[in-house]
Amino acid sequence: MNAAEQARGLNVSTKIAALINLFKSEFPDAKADLKPWRNDPETLSWVDPDSIDIGFHFPGWSRRINCHSILVQIRFYQDPLDAKKRLIGIETAGFSHQGQAWRLSTVENWQFFGSYQPAIEPKEQIKHFCRNVFELFDRSL
Hints:
Oligomer: single chain
Number of domains: 1
Number of strands: 6
Shape: globular
Strand order of the largest sheet: 1-2-3-4-5-6
Strand content: 25-35%
Order of helices and strands: HHEHEEEEEH
């Protein structure tokens, strides 16, 4: 779900701001997009209501990262017994004008997949960002 729609309380809003800063500390020229999903019925049918989704756009195409935008989906599990959301994983995907170029899932052994993957240094920066997000959300929402 778009981060802008998830930012309903001070706790979540503060964490969203912190994760934007974490990403920008790795990629300073990225611009955050708190509404990466369109608001049409078809798109909304794919949206996970238990995620925080943020897009990051670069000024032009980045040769090092092999994309011009990165979608970050912070995935949570809603525990029915205690009503708290717990972080279960992070999905990232890089997009070019041709569509998805690569993806990384922390659920799938932290491996990059795709035809046009980032260079080694940006891969490590993305993984470092993901580790920091896990630390940020080490307590449930």
